[in-house]
């Protein structure tokens, strides 16, 4: 199966004046096939959100894409496009929802107007038609009384409802790919489950590929087809979800599993990974995980381990555990 | 909303009343004899003085003065100007027109060109043009308004003779002149005072708007709107400028009184027959009824201004109703 969206050698750097450039995302490659749900998992600061923003060329000011970076979508390299030429792709081919539904909606615009805006951004649709479609979209994302809510202000809706509105906006352009950047992090646990359920339903009914960016392996289980684990700006492990959950290979991934509380057994003490993720600019040599790794050997300090696939689909960047069973 | 409006209007009415009463009392308590200001060294016999005091009510007890003022004000009578010898309300009405014209046009320029420049400089911060606009307006703000006025008079009136140096209209203009001629005359007389007012203060709306836009342009909803393919023009107007309007409403509320209070210095430099010059003259002449009348008008404007600003807040920020 050829990938619908293919990210190659993604490198994002910031060059503050008079200082060494900082490279929060380095050499990241992955693909997303049509209708597939891929989870990009990692701790805060690992570069996963920047990766998502880079795909739609929404990087903050000062960020630069590396010269070899390519973002191929439907035969076009989005990395080479300008702000003007990338606009037809935004929302219409690739849509995005964000972490904070509180501030991702314009507070002085009715929610219906923001959905209508998304519809009219890519097609000349008369207002009445666009409004009817906005109401239908609100119904599709599970908002009760959509004909009334379409005229609500964002502050009149709860966090979960706002995230549903964000999803309706994302669906407005009938995208082929949806990038969901921590879509449930800001929500209550019960609401989180509802939104994830909705996301899953939508991608199945619409045959829409989803790139789910999250720090929470728990929400990935049972939903994602494939998981990419990111650490300190690089992908350290990539595998089909079932394989990864059954036999994680990278010590970092194993550490992440160790820090998820299990509901089906007694919890003595939650294992966590010692230390914290170093900030970009202070990343260690070789394997960037080696200072926190219980299995580190001399090679880990000296040389960066390549991402090696042991079977067709399970790739791990580790000198010690790659290819070995758990 | 209606409930709020009623309560807010009552509040404003009470504050206005309190402010005006305080003004009446203060002017009475302050030292200085209006009679002395009129008579000066002119030899006057005591009988005349007593008669004048009687007529102007200058040595009545405080309570009587306040009661008389309130009684008159309720009938729309603010007393008689000591200097002009005419009803205060008549004089105020004459002076209000020119001041409203000058102040209104100034506010209009501020809240159109000023806001546009603020938005533009915030969206293009590192351009030469933005820096020139920022620098020049700051110089204008730093200079006293009468200095700007005098420079403009010197250049455009005295040196090049493009505009009249002062006044509200040409006294030699034929009384049966056509509408076009009258309008042209009015515009020519307005040009220099209006330019002075604008130059002296436009830095404020520009900077307020710029600061507000600086915040909204980085807002998450702007990134979200870009992510759905919204055009740059729509982005600038609906997602960056429109949410940045709230602080501007505060500014408008603060500035509405300027519409009536006028700018004393600018009106003085250009001999503009407005409320500003009226207050300056009345204070110098200790024209007590005039000072109180003009002061009451200012107090009323401040209250109406803040009431209007509060109302506009609710239009501009939909979350206000929930609070």
Strand content of chain A: 15-25%
The rounded distance between the terminal residues' Cα atoms of chain B is 11 Å
**β-sheet strand percentage of chain B:** under 5%
Oligomer: heterodimer
Helix content of chain B: over 70%
Return Rg of chain A in Å: 21 Å
Strand order of the largest sheet of chain A: 7-8-9-3-10-11-13-12
- The CATH topology annotation of the domain at 91-285 in chain B reads as MetI-like fold
Q: Would you list the SSEs of chain A in sequence order as H and E?
A: EEEHEEEEHHHHEHEHEEHHHEE
Structural class of the helix and strand makeup of chain B? mainly alpha
Characterize the main sheet of chain A.
8 strands, mixed
In the predicted model, the low-confidence regions of chain B spanning at least 5 consecutive residues are: none
Structural class by secondary-structure content of chain A: alpha/beta
Principal-axis shape of chain A equals globular
State mean pLDDT of chain B (0 to 100 scale).
86
Structure characterization notes:
The complex is a heterodimer of chains A (326) and B (323). Chain A has a domain at 3-224: Rossmann fold (3-Layer(aba) Sandwich), CATH 3.40.50.300. In chain A, helix 2 (111-120) runs parallel beside helix 5 (159-172) and helix 5 (159-172) packs parallel to helix 6. In chain A, the strands form 2 sheets. An 8-stranded mixed beta sheet of chain A has the order 7-8-9-3-10-11-13-12, sandwiched between helices. In chain A, strands 1, 2, 4, 5 and 6 form a 5-stranded antiparallel beta sheet that branches. Chain A is built from 10 helices and 13 strands. The longest helix of chain A has 18 residues, at 189-206. Chain A has helices at 48-55, 111-120, 127-140, 146-149, 159-172, 189-206, 217-220, 241-246, 251-258, 298-302; strands at 3-14, 22-33, 37-41, 63-65, 70-73, 76-77, 94-97, 177-181, 209-214, 226-231, 234-240, 308-309, 315-316. In chain A, strand 5 and strand 6 (76-77) form a beta hairpin. In chain A, 28% of the residues lie in helices and 21% in strands. Chain A is of the alpha/beta class and 326 residues long. Chain B is an all-alpha fold. Chain B has a domain at 91-285: MetI-like fold, CATH 1.10.3720.10. Chain B has helices at 2-29, 34-39, 46-56, 62-74, 88-123, 128-142, 145-159, 179-201, 203-216, 220-227, 232-241, 246-261, 264-269, 275-284, 288-316. In chain B, helix 6 crosses helix 9 (203-216) and helix 10 runs antiparallel to helix 11. Chain B starts with a helix and ends in a 7-residue tail after the last helix. Classes of the chains: A alpha/beta (326), B mainly alpha (323). The interface between A and B is medium-sized, with 34 and 24 residues.
């Amino acid at each position: 199966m050829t990938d619908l969206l293919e990210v190659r050698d993604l490198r994002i750097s910031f060059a503050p004046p008079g200082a060494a450039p900082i490279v929060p995302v380095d050499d990241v490659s992955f693909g997303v096939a049509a209708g597939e749900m891929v989870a990009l998992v990692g701790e805060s600061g690992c570069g996963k959100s920047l990766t998502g923003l880079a795909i739609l060329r929404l990087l903050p000011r000062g960020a630069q894409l590396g010269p070899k970076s390519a973002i191929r979508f439907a035969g076009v390299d989005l990395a080479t496009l300008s702000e003007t030429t990338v606009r037809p792709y935004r929302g219409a081919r690739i849509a995005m929802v964000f972490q904070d539904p509180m501030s991702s909606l314009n507070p002085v615009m009715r929610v219906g107007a923001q959905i209508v805006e998304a519809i009219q951004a890519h097609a000349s649709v008369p207002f009445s038609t666009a409004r009817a479609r906005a109401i239908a979209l609100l119904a599709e994302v599970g908002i009760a009384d959509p004909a009334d809510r379409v005229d609500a202000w964002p502050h009149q809706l709860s966090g979960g409802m706002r995230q549903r509105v964000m999803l309706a906006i994302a669906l407005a352009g009938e995208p082929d790919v949806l990038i969901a950047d921590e879509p449930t992090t800001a929500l209550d646990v019960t609401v989180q489950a509802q939104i994830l359920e909705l996301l899953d339903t939508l991608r199945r009914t619409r045959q829409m590929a989803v790139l789910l960016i999250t720090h929470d392996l728990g929400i990935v289980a049972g939903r994602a087809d494939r998981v990419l684990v990111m650490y300190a700006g690089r992908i350290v492990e990539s595998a089909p979800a079932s394989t990864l959950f059954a036999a994680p290979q990278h010590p970092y991934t194993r550490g992440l599993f160790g820090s998820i509380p299990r509901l089906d057994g007694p919890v003595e003490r939650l294992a966590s990974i010692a230390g914290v993720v170093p900030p970009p600019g202070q990343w260690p040599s070789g394997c960037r995980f080696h200072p926190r790794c219980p299995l580190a050997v001399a090679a880990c300090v000296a040389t960066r381990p390549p991402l090696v696939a042991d079977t067709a689909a399970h790739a791990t960047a580790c000198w010690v555990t790659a290819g070995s069973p758990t | 909303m209606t409930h709020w409006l009623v309560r807010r209007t009552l509040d404003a009415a009470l504050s206005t009343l309190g402010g005006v009463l305080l003004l009446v009392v203060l002017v009475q308590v302050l030292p200085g004899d209006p009679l002395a200001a009129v008579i000066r060294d002119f030899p006057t016999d005591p009988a005349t003085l007593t008669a004048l005091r009687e007529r102007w009510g200058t040595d009545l007890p405080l309570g009587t003065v306040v009661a008389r003022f309130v009684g008159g004000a309720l009938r729309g009578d603010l007393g008689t100007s000591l200097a002009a010898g005419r009803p205060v309300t008549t004089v105020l009405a004459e002076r209000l027109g020119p001041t409203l014209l000058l102040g209104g046009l100034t506010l209009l320029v501020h809240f159109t060109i000023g806001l546009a420049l603020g938005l533009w400089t915030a969206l293009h911060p590192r351009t030469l043009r933005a820096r020139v606009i920022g620098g020049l307006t700051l110089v204008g703000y730093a200079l006293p308004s009468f200095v700007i006025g005098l420079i403009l008079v010197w250049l455009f009136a005295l040196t090049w003779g493009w505009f009249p140096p002062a006044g509200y209209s040409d006294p030699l203009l034929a009384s049966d002149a056509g509408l076009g001629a009258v309008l042209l005359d009015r515009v020519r007389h307005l040009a220099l005072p209006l330019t002075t007012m604008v130059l002296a203060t436009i830095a404020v709306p520009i900077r307020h708007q710029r600061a507000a836009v600086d915040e909204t342009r980085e807002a998450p909803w702007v990134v979200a709107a870009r992510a759905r393919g919204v055009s740059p023009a729509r982005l600038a107007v609906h997602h960056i400028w429109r949410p940045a309007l709230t602080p501007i409403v505060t500014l408008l509320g603060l500035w509405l009184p300027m519409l009536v209070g006028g700018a004393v210095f600018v009106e003085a430099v250009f001999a503009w027959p407005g409320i500003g010059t009226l207050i300056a003259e009345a204070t110098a002449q200790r024209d007590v009824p005039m000072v109180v009348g003009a002061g009451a008008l200012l107090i009323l404007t401040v209250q109406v201004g803040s009431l209007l600003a509060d109302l506009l807040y609710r239009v501009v920020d939909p979350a206000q109703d929930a609070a």
